[in-house]
Design goal:
Elements: H1 3-9, E1 13-18, E2 22-36, E3 42-51, E4 64-69, E5 72-83, E6 88-93, H2 94-99
Length: 107
């Protein structure tokens, strides 16, 4: 995801549905973030979301992140991780999946 597009996302509200926390919402507050999991795997170019309450928790990974535009849901990405103490979460933009050749089916 390029910086020009990503910077336009800052301040926008997004919603997430996860197995553990259900439906939550938060505000995009950063982009091109990198996280390293405890097993050493690094994930780059993530979007960060600050929730008023817990935006995501363990068990939510892979859940859809979307915004609402003109009354319709617009897919933004999938949850990759977060910190329930700070209420800050990370999602991987759908653009990354498309670039790797994945197809997203919403049926």
């Amino acid at each position: 995801i390029d910086n020009e597009y990503a910077s336009e996302l800052e301040g926008k509200y997004v919603y997430k549905y996860g197995q553990a926390t259900g439906l939550t919402y938060g505000q995009i507050d950063g982009y091109n973030e990198e996280i390293t999991y405890s097993d050493g795997i690094k994930i780059k170019k993530l979007i960060t979301v600050q929730g008023t309450y817990t935006f995501s928790s363990g068990g939510d990974s892979g859940g859809p992140v979307y915004s609402i535009v003109n009354g319709s849901r617009l897919g933004m990405g999938t949850i990759s991780g977060g910190n329930s103490t700070t209420n800050r979460s990370y999602y991987s933009p759908l653009a990354h999946a498309y670039a790797d050749g994945f197809i997203v089916n919403t049926d």
